[in-house]
Design goal:
It is built from six helices and no strands. The protein is an all-alpha fold.
Length: about 150
């Protein structure tokens, strides 16, 4: 979480955005765009690896489980990451993650079937997030060129 917030804060600096080609709509290949994409992908990979190491240490082993992928997508989409323009923020994703984890725990305490907890709730969150993202994209309009 702290790494995501730090990365989000770093990319708010106009000089960093300009250097990595973020928000640049000029066509064609530019090395700065490739560098920006590799930096983002590499940073995300390191954070994912660290969280995986912590999870394996907590659980005492690695177990195949794809339920968390759907919840992760639901958290990103519900948190404001637009599937149409790929714009969004870090704080919304953090709040959506907290909401989905709390909802999952509440539904498990209510002893609902696991398919309902791990399938229906994230699916509804994704649908709701897509609708909200579409509405926000229509209100905000295109991203201004820098």
């Amino acid at each position: 979480m702290l790494g995501s917030l730090a990365g989000g804060a770093l990319f708010l600096v106009p000089g960093v955005r300009r250097a990595l080609g973020v928000g640049d709509a000029a066509p064609g290949f530019r090395p700065s765009r490739l560098l920006g994409a590799l930096a983002g992908f590499g940073g995300s990979s390191v954070l994912a690896a660290l969280s995986g190491i912590v999870l394996v240490g907590r659980l005492g082993g690695a177990f195949p489980n794809s339920d968390r992928l759907v919840i992760a997508v639901a958290a990103a989409v519900l948190g404001g990451i637009s599937v149409f323009t790929f714009r969004g923020g870090v704080a919304g994703t953090l709040f959506a993650t907290a909401f989905l984890v709390l909802a999952e725990n509440a539904l498990r305490l209510a002893e609902l079937p696991l398919w309902l907890v791990f399938s229906l709730v994230p699916a509804l969150a994704i649908l709701f997030g897509i609708l909200i993202g579409l509405a926000l994209d229509k209100i905000a309009g295109p991203e201004p060129q820098r």
